[in-house]
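A protein record pairs a chain with a discrete description of its three-dimensional fold. The following entry can be read in just this way.
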Amino acid sequence: MSKNENTSVNTGKIYDFCSASKRRMMIIIAAIVIVAAVVGAIVRGVNVAIEFKGGTVITYDCAADVDVNKAEGVVKEIVDTSVSIRTGENIETGGKQITVSFTSEEGLTVDRQVELTEALQKAFPEADMVLSDSNDVNPTTGKEFFLKCIVAVLFAAVLIIIYIAIRFKKIGGWSAGLCSVFALLHDLLVAMTASILFGFEFNSNMVAVILTILGYSINNTIVIYDRIRENRQLMPKASLNEIINAGCSQSLTRSIRTSITTIGTMLIVTIVVFISGYKSLLSFSVPLMFGLISGTYSSLFVAPGTWAWWMEKRSAKKKASGKK
């Protein structure tokens, strides 16, 4: 604990959020996340869904339940790529269905399709599997959608920087905006690392995760910046670190309560989805849960900590150049 922790500013104790030790902690955590992402990508690979990469979707009508894991193994032996299999019902007949999807640049030839169907029928003779539908997915549309998502995220980042720069211009708005975007990138990296380590596909669910985290994390950061701006006026003789520590300490209880509610909700959703067998939704709930945890941490430590470091460096540079 720092010497400031016993200081009382409106709401009680002031904790240390931007000391040199906390910055080292941030660097260590960021390094661990990056290493985990790289190792996960090398060991497990990055699974890109067919809507982004292109591939084939085949649907079969079934008379009985099919072991999804066993079916994935059968399909993988033939197509030699990542495979996703979902179970469901035929809307028209009410019968059981399975949908097989896998990435492919050239699509599936008629001969390979026949081979795949025969292999599944042989592996599950009791299911009486009948080919219902087969489609090749063009990757062009998916790539355009992905690029539009990237553009949207970049545009949002620019707007965030401009908004924070204007709203918090009295406390160094541009630097505060850039540091908040850095914290957002940290949260997105955590969510994507979780997705890689758990072996989830990068699909439309991940895009929804990214957009959700952007809104959640920046909201937390702006609330803390508001506190810092208020404390700038209430504590005119305090140092920058003391003002930041006061703002973060005053927002701590609110951040923890909000995080417990949102993260707890996603944990319940994850458990229910896992138990009920709708595992395709796990690629949304699990990365989002990790991203929300990171968003709470980054709004309290990463954004204020990097901003404090930035302002200190700028102040030191001015002093070194003889400016007042």
Q: What stands out?
A: The radius of gyration is 25 Å. The CA atoms of residues 185 and 214 lie 9 Å apart.
